[in-house]
């Protein structure tokens, strides 16, 4: 079915795979998304529960690196522990994972900034915290860059746990159709290529707008999240390289 020009995606390929050429925003191809899709591994969440694709062989491929099956077992455990959304009949939800070659403290320092999401989210032009002084229940007004089918989003902080590295927010207003949107981001330590790295998991649940399917709705949200995770990776890894270079220079 068509995306009806509301900014949701559509699939036209018989395989059902995400295709950059098929993502439509406001009825037009959105070229800034090119290059972001191959970076994340998608885990579906049908029938109110996460399902995990079968793994063939000894390795799974994530973000261009090879990781032993044990990594996938840890992903499953983290998702079961922190990302179990209750998905109603008129909603859809998914979870995405991302491995970043930067230590947890650095990545978390970006993720936790409820007051400055533009530090890594490429589609945010401005953010103003309206109430709450960055405590649970704080509300922010986010201005969205042109090119998306929205200009503002009003969002509430639901959880910010600096010890467990858990961030959760809900969308409570704005000129878009992502109603009852809720997301959880968790950050976990990993060793990647012999260095401290980070596993980031982001999950969401959202209402399916009238006139659109669950696939179309999730397809659009997935695209936005993948762009955010790609940008988070770029910012974090550049900073990590800079920090290592400075350390070497001081030795």
From TrEMBL:
Main location: cytoplasm
GO biological process: abscisic acid-activated signaling pathway
A cellular component annotation (GO) from this entry: cytoplasm
Keyword terms: Abscisic acid signaling pathway, Cytoplasm, Disulfide bond, Nucleus, Protein phosphatase inhibitor, Receptor
Subcellular location: Cytoplasm; Nucleus
Keyword Cytoplasm: yes
InterPro entries listed in its UniProt record: Plant_def-hormone_signal (IPR050279), Polyketide_cyclase/dehydratase (IPR019587), START-like_dom_sf (IPR023393)
Family assignment from sequence similarity: Belongs to the PYR/PYL/RCAR abscisic acid intracellular receptor family.
Record protein name field: Abscisic acid receptor PYL8-like
Organism listed in the record: Juglans regia (English walnut)
């Amino acid at each position: 079915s068509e995306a009806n020009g509301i900014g949701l995606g559509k699939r036209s390929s018989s395989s059902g795979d995400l295709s950059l050429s098929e993502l439509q925003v406001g009825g037009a191809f959105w070229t800034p998304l090119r290059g972001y899709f191959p970076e994340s591994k998608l885990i579906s969440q049908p029938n109110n529960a996460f399902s995990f694709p079968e793994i063939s062989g000894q390795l799974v491929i994530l973000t261009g690196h090879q990781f032993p099956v044990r990594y996938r077992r840890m992903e499953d455990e983290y998702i079961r522990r922190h990302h179990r959304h209750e998905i109603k009949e008129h909603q859809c939800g998914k979870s995405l994972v991302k491995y970043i070659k930067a230590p947890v403290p650095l990545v978390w320092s970006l993720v936790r900034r409820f007051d400055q999401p533009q530090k890594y989210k490429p589609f945010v032009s401005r953010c103003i915290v309206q109430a709450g002084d960055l405590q649970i229940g704080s509300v922010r007004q986010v201005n969205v860059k042109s090119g998306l089918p929205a200009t503002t989003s009003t969002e509430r902080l639901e959880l910010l746990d600096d010890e467990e590295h858990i961030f959760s927010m809900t969308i409570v207003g704005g000129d878009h159709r992502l109603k009852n949107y809720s997301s959880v981001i968790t950050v976990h330590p990993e060793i990647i290529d012999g260095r401290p790295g980070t596993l980031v998991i982001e999950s969401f649940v959202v209402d399916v707008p009238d006139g659109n399917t669950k696939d179309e709705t999730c397809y659009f949200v997935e695209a936005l999240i993948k762009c955010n995770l790609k940008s988070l990776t770029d910012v974090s890894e550049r900073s990590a390289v800079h920090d290592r270079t400075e350390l070497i220079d001081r030795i």
